[in-house]
Amino acid sequence: MWAKEFVYLVGENDEVLWYKSRDELTDDDTWRIIAVNIYDESWEYILVQQRSKLKKLNPWLWTLAVVWTVEKDDTYESCAIREVKEEIWVDCIDLVEVTKIYYKATLWHRFCSIFSDIIPKDTTITIQEDEVDIAKWIHIDELKIWVENKPEEFTKYTIEIWKYLWVL
């Protein structure tokens, strides 16, 4: 399934209980992920990505600028900073943790730490092709219409995160 990556198993208060290989996770496990919203300077545009067709879960669906599993020995923040650099080649200078939520995904339970940053719209975005097919800016009003008309084109957790953050 995945390369031997280890993730923290966490309890109901996000406390680390142990760790486990991703390929051994069961639907009873709870683990950590990060999600990063990136806005332009006007807060009118948001960066979205289409997940690679090579992804095992949710291929070709649209999501936040960056979403990733927090691996063993990572913090939420170190994971977010690294994955923004790897997936879209952007240095997040003012990455801010907005909130943390718990949810049940299609598979597994997760604690998701949500981060935000602001970067200029003319920043060069270079995607990591085995993770991302497309990254693009979209006006938030257009995003709302798109999600309303074609929610099946987005991951379910993305829509929930955007609703929680009042993006939608």
Number of strands: 9
**Would you tell me the overall average pLDDT?**
91
CATH first level: which class?
A: Alpha Beta
Number of helices: 3
Give the radius of gyration.
15 Å
Low-confidence stretches: none
CATH architectural type: Alpha-Beta Complex
Instruction: Please provide the ordered H/E string of secondary-structure elements.
Output: EEEEEEHEEEHH
Helix content: 10-25%
CATH level-4 homologous superfamily: Nucleoside Triphosphate Pyrophosphohydrolase
Description:
With 168 residues, the chain is an alpha+beta fold. It has a single domain, classed as Nucleoside Triphosphate Pyrophosphohydrolase (Alpha-Beta Complex), CATH 3.90.79. It contains three helices and nine strands. A four-stranded mixed sheet has the order 6-3-8-7, covered by helices on one side. Strand 1 and strand 2 form a beta hairpin. It is globular, with a radius of gyration of 15 Å.
State the gist of this model.
This protein has 3 helices and 9 strands, in the order ββββββαβββαα. It is an alpha+beta fold.
Please give the structural blueprint.
Blueprint: E1 6-10, E2 16-21, E3 30-39, E4 45-51, E5 62-64, E6 66-69, H1 76-88, E7 96-104, E8 109-118, E9 132-139, H2 140-149, H3 156-164
Parallel strand pairs: 3-8
Antiparallel strand pairs: 1-2, 3-6, 4-5, 4-9, 7-8
